């Protein structure tokens, strides 16, 4: 009898130790999952100051939105002053997941020795867990790095389900604290590349390109006078599904001499929406100045946001007729004997502008 009890005690101890090094998949609290409290004899914690110390971040970018078909370095961290050994498990599911929904994307440990992956087949889900080395907490903090590779053909919401085990390291399932937390992101249907605006004689030419499109029905160009209130200026059809670079051009026939704000609204076939960044178009400060002569007062007036540094008057033969002296504020004095048609050259910064003028 003692031998049997000894064997059972050894089995329980080994089971607990095994869970510290590699939890079985399916304990994240996600739909269809249990959570670690089913083995650790406690009530899951879903709020509070220690719970707030669970953080999930996307390294080098925002977690709020992620593009499809991309590898995203992630960091999960937890801090508690009452323990020196932590464990975790997480999985990623669509935001509307049920108990039978498969995972979104793929979790990868990369080169880290602190995390490892596991999986289930029914439903098809992959999980990320700590290793034995990954349970140690330095000054009450543990940090785990991994990669999340988003699918090629998926757009919409996704949820990270995270369970943290704050253990008292007594090789027993009692005395531990289990925390459950979720983090949300959106997998974008379009990977935006460049977005620019250019002045033309007809208006403002918008150019943008994408590196990836998923289920993309249409682009709607929106403009604003104040950067807050946008209206639709027009639309262009998207490529549907494309993994190659796609370029688009849209001419907005508005006054190009004033400031405008633009953004592109992308709409899926199922009605989901996404926006590009807001682009601010401002008129070119180095556009050709307006020049006109006031012969009654013998002055040449130049309208420009920048001060002209020099004005040279050429005869139509190409010879320099004279150089004008500035009176300040882009006003130049004309000699009374200057009459006829001349070519006027105005120097503004490093740019020269020419105009035939009648004096």
Note down, in words, how this protein is organized.
The protein is mainly β. The chain has three domains: 2-188, Sandwich (Immunoglobulin-like), CATH 2.60.40.4060; 190-281, Immunoglobulins (Immunoglobulin-like, Sandwich); 290-358, Sandwich (Immunoglobulin-like), CATH 2.60.40. Helix content is 7%, strand content 50%. Strand 11 (190-199) and strand 12 (204-224) form a beta hairpin. It is elongated. The N and C termini lie far apart (121 Å).
Order of helices and strands: HHEEEEEEEEEEEEEEEEEEEEEEEE
The tally of helices reads 2
Quote the beta fraction.
over 45%
Structural class: mainly beta
CATH architecture of the largest domain: Sandwich
Q: What helical percentage do the residues reach?
A: under 10%
What's a concise summary of this model?
With 359 residues, the protein is mainly beta.
Set down the secondary structure blueprint.
Layout: H1 2-21, H2 37-40, E1 55-58, E2 65-67, E3 71-79, E4 85-94, E5 106-108, E6 115-120, E7 125-130, E8 141-149, E9 156-167, E10 177-188, E11 190-199, E12 204-224, E13 230-242, E14 246-252, E15 260-268, E16 273-275, E17 279-281, E18 290-294, E19 299-303, E20 310-314, E21 320-324, E22 331-333, E23 341-348, E24 351-358
Parallel strand pairs: 2-10
Antiparallel strand pairs: 1-3, 3-8, 4-7, 4-9, 5-8, 6-7, 9-10, 11-12, 12-13, 12-14, 12-15, 15-16, 15-17, 18-19, 19-22, 20-21, 20-23, 23-24
């Amino acid at each position: 009898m003692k031998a049997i009890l000894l064997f059972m005690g050894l089995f329980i101890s080994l089971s607990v130790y095994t869970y510290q090094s590699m939890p079985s998949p399916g304990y994240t609290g996600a739909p269809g999952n249990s959570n670690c409290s089913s083995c650790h004899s406690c009530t899951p914690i879903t709020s509070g100051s220690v719970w707030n110390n669970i953080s999930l971040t996307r390294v080098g970018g925002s977690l709020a939105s992620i593009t499809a078909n991309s590898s995203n370095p992630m960091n999960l961290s937890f801090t508690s002053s009452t323990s020196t050994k932590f464990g975790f498990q997480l999985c990623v599911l669509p935001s509307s997941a049920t108990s039978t929904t498969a995972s979104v994307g793929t979790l990868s440990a990369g080169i880290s020795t602190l995390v490892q992956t596991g999986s289930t087949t029914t439903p098809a889900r992959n999980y990320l867990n700590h290793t034995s080395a990954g349970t140690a907490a330095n000054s009450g903090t543990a940090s785990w790095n991994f990669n999340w590779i988003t699918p090629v053909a998926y757009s919409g919401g996704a949820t990270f389900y995270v369970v943290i085990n704050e253990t008292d390291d007594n090789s027993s399932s009692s005395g531990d604290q289990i925390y459950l937390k979720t983090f949300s992101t959106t997998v974008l249907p379009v990977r935006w590349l460049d977005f620019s605006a250019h002045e033309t004689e007809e208006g403002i030419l918008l150019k943008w390109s994408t590196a990836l499109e998923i289920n993309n029905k249409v682009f709607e160009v929106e403009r604003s006078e104040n950067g807050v209130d946008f209206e639709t200026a027009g639309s262009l059809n998207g490529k549907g599904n494309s993994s190659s670079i796609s370029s688009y051009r849209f001419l907005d026939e508005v006054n190009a001499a004033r400031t405008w704000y633009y953004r592109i609204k992308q709409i899926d076939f199922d009605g989901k929406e996404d926006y590009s960044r807001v682009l601010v178009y401002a008129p070119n400060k180095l556009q050709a100045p307006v020049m006109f002569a006031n012969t009654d007062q013998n002055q040449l007036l130049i309208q420009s946001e920048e001060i002209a540094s020099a004005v040279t008057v050429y005869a139509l033969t190409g010879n320099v007729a004279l150089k004008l002296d500035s009176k300040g504020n882009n006003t130049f004095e004309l000699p009374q004997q200057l009459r006829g048609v001349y070519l006027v050259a105005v120097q503004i910064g490093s740019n020269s502008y020419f105009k035939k003028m009648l004096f």
